[in-house]
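Purpose: get a first structural picture of the assembly so the mutagenesis plan has something to point at.
Setup: two entries, given in the order below. No constraints added.
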Amino acid sequence: MNHDLFPVSRTDLDRLRETLIVRAQDDGVLDVAYRIMDSPVGPLLLATTEKGLVRVAFEIEDFDAVLETLAQRVSPRILDAPKRLDVAAVELEEYFTGHRHEFDLPLDHALSRGFRQEVQRFLPQIGYGQTLSYKEVAGLVGNPQAVRAVGTACATNPLPVVVPCHRVLRTDGSLGGYIGGLEAKTALLSLEQAA
Amino acid sequence: MRMKEPFEKAVERHGVTVLRVCRAVLGAGADADDAWSETFLAALRAWPELPEGTNVEAWLVRVAHRKAVDVTRARARHATPTDEVPDRASSLDDPSGDERGVWQAVAALPERQRLAIAYHYLGGLPHIQTAELIGGTPEAVRRAAADGIKSLRQTYNAGEAQKGESR
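Result (structure tokens, whole complex):
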């Protein structure tokens, strides 16, 4: 007898997983819920805590590695619970079709600290379709010398797209870096120019 | 060091095994479903405190054993006749599931054989650990599992084509 002869259907397992998610939420033991959605810049992983959206990740970041970091730095009580991210997914879809210019989502900045978090909290003030240089951002957060640190803050932004680090460029207008790759940065900037 | 692996991985890797264990112990249906849910809920709760390097599958199978005992006790307490129809469809009705009646055949085995198959054969616990859970000697567990599998083999002889979704 092979174990496979003891049948368990995908349907049964999916139904049980649904029940587990609901009960885990009711009992307050689902610390991080995530889902993977398609987008014009490739699959995106969205993760949320009770407080709000805690992570947006591009596929090139390696989703398994992203989940492991969440387990280490936030909580290992993580489940693939797509419904918890319905609102975020809808807002992102609206953004990618050019119908949304600002995100209205609670955010959890648990993955960044200090000056980096300060910069990331500032970034949503750069309006849709606008861009600033790293240097300008440094000035606007009150630390004009900290151009490199602003670059690091953008490069380590745990909430790309939603926190628009793609709107920060080099002083000469060249792209600088991007957590999702330069192609993704270009795509987001063109999307915002076109709208 | 404490467990730092996303719990989702444990559900992905061991969800099927735990359901097989629960079904072998309780029969395919609502009781096994309850035991599965209680097992993973308890595991999720305990997960951050689980020492790194724990054999997760063996740990889950032991939790499933405790939950199956709870379900069996609850069933005994509420074993009054009722007209109520269970609100969840039994997987026995699922044509993609047990079309060959394997779970029914397991349910028809003597209890010791059923439990030995559940925890040793399907759950992967060594004979000695299975004996700790279900009583008796490791040798008796070995025999019970072998006899149970032999009897299932006679029902589903090896030459028969494998049908049905297995996972």
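Confidence is low (pLDDT under 50) at residues 85-96, 161-167 of chain B.
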